[in-house]
Amino acid sequence: MHDPGTAPLEGGAQVTGTPVPGDEDDARAYVARLWERRVQGTDLTWAVVGAEGTDVAGELLGAVNLLGLADRHFPDTAEVGYWVNPAHRGQGVVGRALDLVLPFVVKPVAQGGLGRHRVVATTHEHNVASQHVLRRAGFTQWGTEPAAHPVDAADPAGERYAITHWHWLAGTDRARAARAAREQALAPCTLECT
Q1: Tens digits of residue pLDDT in 91-123
Q2: What's the gap between Cα 129 and its chain centre?
Q3: CB count, 10 Å around CB of 171?
Q4: What does the radius of gyration of the chain's CA atoms come to, in whole angstroms?
Q5: Which residues contact 110 (CB under 8 A, 6 or more apart)?
Q6: pLDDT tens, 25-78?
């Protein structure tokens, strides 16, 4: 599997390596799982870290994951996931990282990319920030899976949240899709009471 290495991001971030969450034992287990998935060819993970020469140099800002890369049922698809360090939320960290990762995902294999045609994502119905990131990146919501995810993993029979499903197709103008989503969100509406 091609490793895109380190790529600089505007605004003081770069995409490289793997993120390290939790305490040292958690981090070691997490990195071992990521490495195993990478060796198996199923996942790629990049840490988003502050670039040298910025006030966040070397800080872990977040991460971007590509999942399902060995899925034999959908070989032209990759699933993207991400998280942002709470101290750096609302600063466009993931959006800038996706601007680097998505072209790599759809670039032909012969040119060093993954050669995928479709990138999908899912998010919790109440995760408005994540939905905003996806819209700004040019993704389109194509569905909602009602009552799909337990609110409390320890109580799977309890209350459940819906999961929203998103996609972006290679060749789709991401900037145009993002503008259309923004215009639709800002379009005036009329409420009528009967």
Answers
A1: 888 899 999 999 999 999 999 999 999 999 999
A2: 12
A3: 7
A4: 18
A5: none
A6: 776 776 677 777 766 667 888 888 888 888 888 888 888 999 888 888 888 999
- Separation of alpha carbons 112 and 38, rounded Å: 17
What's the rounded Cα separation, in Å, for the pair 139 and 150? 25
Q: Tell how strand 118-124 and strand 77-84 pair up.
A: parallel
User: ∠ CA(164), CA(4), CA(47), 5° rounding?
Assistant: 55
Report the relative pairing of strands 140-150 and 44-50 from DSSP bridges. Answer: unpaired
pTM equals 0.72
**Cα–Cα distance, 128 to 137 (Å, whole number):** 14
Q: HEC states along 147-161?
A: EEEECCCCCCCCCEE
- pLDDT (0 to 100) of residue 4: 41
Contact 14, 8 (CB under 8 A): yes
In the predicted model, is pLDDT for residue 17 greater than 60? no
116 in Cβ contact with 79 (< 8 Å): no
Amino acid at 182: R
